[in-house]
Amino acid sequence: MPTIIRVGPYRFFFYSNEVAEPQHVHVQRDRALANFWINPVEIASSAGFPAHELSKLRKLVLEHESRFKEAWNEYFGD
User: Fold this and answer.
1) Staple partner for 44: which of 6, 35, 62, 68, CB 3.0–4.6 Å?
2) Which tens digit of pLDDT belongs to each residue from 14-72?
C-alpha cells in the first residue's frame, strides 16, 4: 500500500490492488480511516473521523489533488 504523503497525523495512500477503481485516496489517522474520490473530490466512505475533521481532510485532498492523481497514474498507468 503505497504512501503518497503524510500531513501532520494523516497518512494518504492507496492500495496496490485498486487498479480497476476510479482514482481515489485513503486517509488514515490512528484507527480512523476515510476514502476520497479524486475526480471530483468527494468523500466515498469514513469510519472514525468526526464531521469537522472530514471537512479538513477534504480541503487537504483538494490541496494535494494533482499530487494524488500523479501518484495514481505513475503507479497504475494512465
Assistant:
1) 35
2) 998 988 899 999 999 999 999 999 999 999 999 999 999 999 999 999 999 999 999 99
CA count, 13 A, side-chain hemisphere, 14: 24
Is pLDDT at 1 greater than 90 in this prediction?
A: no
Cα–Cα dist 32/13, whole Å? 14
Question: Whole domain around residue 51: which residue ranges?
Answer: 3-76
Task: Say how far apart CA 71 and CA 78 lie, in whole Å.
Answer: 10
Burial of 27 (0-12, 13-18, 19+ CB in 10 A): buried
Domain count, the chain: 1
Query: Which triple of cell numbers denotes residue 66?
Result: 494533482
- Please state, in angstroms and rounded to a whole number, the distance separating the CA atoms of residues 67 and 6: 12
